[in-house]
Amino acid sequence: MKKSITSIKQAFTPLAQANGLTPVFVIEESSTISRLKDKNNVLVVAYPRFGRTGKQDNPTYQAAMSIWVLQKALTGNVTDNQEDDQMEELLQKTETLLDSMEDDADNGGCSFFSQIKFDTIEITPEYRTFGSFNGWWVEFML
After folding, report:
1. Would the pLDDT of 6 be above 90?
2. Cα 49 to Cα 47: distance, rounded to the nearest angstrom
3. Would 16 disulfide with which of 23, 45, 61, 118, CB 3.0-4.6 Å?
4. What residue spans define the domains of the chain?
5. pLDDT tens-digit map of 16-53
6. CATH match for 5-141 among 1.20.120, 1.20.1070, 3.30.70, 1.20.1260
7. pLDDT tens for each residue of 92-122
8. Buried/exposed 32-55: b ≥16 CB within 10 Å, e otherwise
9. Which pairs with CB-CB distance under 8 Å and at least 24 residues apart come from 17-26?
10. DSSP H or E run through 131
């Protein structure tokens, strides 16, 4: 399973840009806040986490990845409806990204996306994450 940083960037950068998002690549979640300074609509991509089970002569590798589709939280006198609208817009972008990733994998496009186990995807709402962002966290297995 090739999961180099280069292949991850090559896979996610055009996908983010096609959806009006700025790609931000992070080593781990704790390094994200400093990389989000002065950004608004972002796709945060955390490099995969790996695990190995089994003996040395017959190991099984597992990997998980997280991405976030985020926008700066609204400020001022914000209504519940405005926050709901923001979350709905970001969920639509998230679903579009996931559909594009799966289409690309199915059509023999991006080799990185073909490694994703699309039946393992979990999507969770995020509120005021990384300091001041709202959006959706997506986790999947490779």
Report:
1. no
2. 7
3. 23
4. 5-141
5. 999 999 999 998 777 788 889 889 999 999 888 888 78
6. 3.30.70
7. 999 999 999 999 888 876 678 888 899 999 9
8. beeebeeeebbbbbbbbeeeeeee
9. 18/100, 19/43, 19/93, 19/96, 19/97, 19/100, 20/93, 21/69, 21/93
10. none
